[in-house]
Structure formats: structure tokens, C-alpha cells
Specification:
alpha/beta, Rossmann fold, six-stranded parallel sheet, two-stranded antiparallel ribbon, 33% helix
């Protein structure tokens, strides 16, 4: 029976250890933003699971709220993403997941992760010029704090083919130039926060949109800030992390997430049909 289950600051009615209902189900892997964790999109994950998807939401090692020592290691993110797919498909519950129906949801650094894992070839040498011109941008401050050179990193595309991507406020979007996303023939749903002060226009979403070989399903969310794509915060989290929890007074994050989750489910259900 489902019971209230604590997930960090969140709570969900879950049935830990219960058998999977169904076989050959579609899989969605969620890649969170830098400094977050598997609960960053807990409402979206739960909505997808209720809609009949298997959802895998890992916490990226070295780039989470407890440990950010590897936040600049982009290759580690893509390798972890690939390892999660391999584990869920081959070892977690054989037969539960259809290996031909895999999608991904990526937010911020996770947006970059899923684009690279799906076969994108970013030019990471562009980071040097970008950060020289915009040292106060969040990603540039993160790279500077990591005290590592912004040099090309070995990225590992997923060993399994992805059939659909949802990408929200992708970090390092400027590294995707013409032709860099040519391999991404799958449908993409692309989201932009119109008032994103963390990854501001026109450096992130716009280059990704332009580089995709197939026009994405594009959504620009009026009044939304960068963190509004994360799950609405319970009071305990809001008190300790106001920077990620506070939306503009006129923006209703709860109402937006009802729309976001419904749109993601509709998109994935259509893209991952058997």
C-alpha cells in the first residue's frame, strides 16, 4: 500500500519495493541541474510514473547539493546518464522497460547532459570566449570556482538510442553551433524561462533551438525564472533555499507545473508510442 515517504524535503505517497505494474514500459531518465539532486523534479517524475512511465532520476555524483567537486566535469554527467540507462534496462527489472522507448528530461546542466548523451557534439572551446565576455554569468562563475581549465571534455553518448528529449533552460547552449545537433533526429520539446537571470537570453536556449535539425516543440514561459522549472518547494526547503524557491510574486509555480507536467506527459506519450 502507498504510504507517505520522505524524499529529502519532499514527501510523496509511495510503495517502496512494490512490483512493477506492466511490462515493456517506456523509460524516462531525468538529469537535474548543477548542485541539485534526484528530488529537483520530483513532481514531474511522479506525474510521469502515474501516467505509466518508468522514471529513473539519479543524483549526479560530484554535481549535487552535497558535493559539487565535479560540477565542471561534463563528461562524468554523460557517463552517469548512460550508466543509468544501462542499469535500468539490463539489470533493474528485466522485461519491465522497452529498450526501444527511452526518453529524457534535462534541466539546466541536465539539459546539456541529455543533448550530449543523445549525440550532440558541443564545441566546449567556446566556453573561454563566452566567459571572457560574460564573467558574471552563473556558468562562468561555476567554472572559475572549480579552478579548472574550460577545455574540451570527453563526452559519452548513451549506449542506448533516445527517442525523445524534453530540454528546459539548457546550460552551455552557446556551445552548440551549426551542425552540432545534426544527429538529433528525434522530437524535442524545448522550454525557456522568459525571465531567466541565471542563463539569460540569447546565449542558451536560442543556439540549441537554431542547431536542432528538426524544429522543436518550443515553449517560452512568460514571467518564469530559471528555477521555476524545479518542483514547487515545500516550506522547509523554501526556508533554507530561498534562491531556488522564490518565484516572482505574479508567477504561480504550482499552476505552471500542472501545465508543464501535462505537456511533458503528452509529448512523451506521443513520441514513445510502441
Amino acid at each position: 500500500m502507498p504510504r507517505a515517504t520522505r524524499l529529502d524535503f519532499f514527501s510523496q505517497d509511495l510503495a517502496p519495493g512494490a512490483p512493477v505494474r506492466g511490462r515493456n514500459l517506456p523509460l524516462i531518465v531525468i538529469s537535474h541541474g548543477s548542485g541539485s539532486s534526484f528530488v529537483g523534479h520530483v513532481d514531474t517524475a511522479f506525474a510521469l510514473a502515474q501516467a505509466g512511465f518508468v522514471v529513473a532520476a539519479p543524483t549526479h555524483t560530484g554535481d549535487n547539493w552535497r558535493d559539487s567537486a565535479g560540477a565542471a566535469d561534463l563528461g562524468a554527467r554523460t557517463r552517469q546518464f548512460a550508466a543509468v540507462i544501462e542499469h535500468v534496462v539490463d539489470h533493474w527489472n528485466p522485461g519491465a522497460v522497452d529498450p526501444g522507448r527511452i526518453g529524457a528530461f534535462g534541466y539546466s546542466a541536465g539539459g546539456f547532459t541529455v543533448l550530449a548523451a543523445a549525440g550532440g557534439t558541443p564545441d566546449l572551446s567556446r566556453i573561454v570566449g563566452h566567459c571572457a565576455a560574460n564573467p558574471a554569468f552563473f556558468d562562468c562563475r561555476l567554472i572559475a570556482a572549480a579552478a579548472v581549465p574550460a577545455a574540451p571534455t570527453v563526452l559519452a553518448p548513451s549506449p542506448r538510442g533516445l527517442r525523445a528529449l524534453v530540454v528546459a533552460a539548457p546550460a552551455l547552449g552557446f556551445t552548440f553551433g551549426p551542425g552540432s545537433l545534426a544527429e538529433l533526429a528525434m522530437p524535442v520539446q524545448l522550454w525557456q524561462a522568459a525571465d531567466d537571470a541565471i542563463l539569460p537570453m540569447p546565449h542558451y536556449v536560442e543556439p540549441v533551438r537554431a542547431a536542432l535539425p528538426r524544429a522543436p516543440e518550443f515553449n517560452s514561459v512568460a514571467g518564469a525564472g530559471h528555477f521555476d522549472f524545479m518542483a514547487p518547494c515545500p516550506p522547509g526547503l523554501a526556508s533554507v533555499a530561498p534562491a531556488i524557491c522564490a518565484s516572482k510574486p505574479e508567477f504561480d509555480r504550482v499552476a505552471f507545473h500542472a501545465r508543464l507536467n501535462a505537456e511533458v506527459i503528452r509529448f512523451m506519450a506521443d513520441a514513445l508510442r510502441p
